[in-house]
Amino acid sequence: MAKITASVYTSHVPAIGAALDLGKTHEDYWKPVFAGYDFSKQWMKDNKPDVIFLVYNDHATAFSLDMIPTFAIGTAAEYTPADEGYGARPVPKVKGHPELASHIAQSVIQQDFDLTIVNKMDVDHGLTVPLSLMCGEQDPIKGAWPCPIIPFAVNVVQYPVPSGQRCFNLGQAIRKAIESYDEDINVHIWGTGGMSHQLQGARAGLINREWDNNWLDLMINDPVACAAVPHIDYVREAGSEGIELVMWLIARGAMSDIQDGKVVGPAPKLAHRFYHVPASNTAVGHAILENVI
Fold first, then answer.
1. What ranges do the domains of the chain cover?
2. Is the whole-model pTM more than 0.85?
3. Which of 12, 97, 197, 276 is catalytic?
4. Which of 27, 37, 88, 292 falls 20 to 30 Å from 67 in CA-CA distance?
5. In the chain, % of residues over pLDDT 90
């Protein structure tokens, strides 16, 4: 059967993509950000998955304010990098895995989670920046990402947004779906977005280092309690866009130590953890957890 061997968590700051694309990675401002992913790029080479299930949020490219699904799974064979107003990022197209994606959709919907099935969409920086950080820069024409990717978009833009508990429970359903797939493949699940930041209003530029790191501790070591953190805490402590962190709980809920909403198995191994401010007006958080098999 298929199995999830690891989960990856990372911010998906658009300015990071711009720094990569414009050759600014060696500038003093950006050096500390990219140094935090040096371990991760080697780890990806040493632990190459067959498929990545990548949880992210769309930024008004595939979905407009006219229609925003709460949870949307991409079932296409290919996804084109989106033009987000300044041209598409110079990165390769994303190859999908329609068979596994369709299987996950079938299984998760039968577990009473409503998913929107998307057979055609472009993918924005929410998906491509994590791939660049973890896999390194790729030639947009001759290059390719290391494996197929299943995009999974979560609405954290238009209220109401899903709770952390709902996302945590969904992660468990996704793991069950993957483990019931009749092929011996290695899957990684990634949760992206966050950490603390606010893009508008009187608190624009908000960064809360202490809360971010306490939340990371909780997510890694006490995920059941982390899932219970109410929506208002994210907004109050981490800013209006800090709510993106609920997407990390989908990946955390999919790890093998969680069963029926409880911790029942050995904790996953923390392979890497990184936190840095600033990166544009966002705190950058990152972690890699490996299932203990």
1. 3-290
2. yes
3. 197
4. 88
5. 98
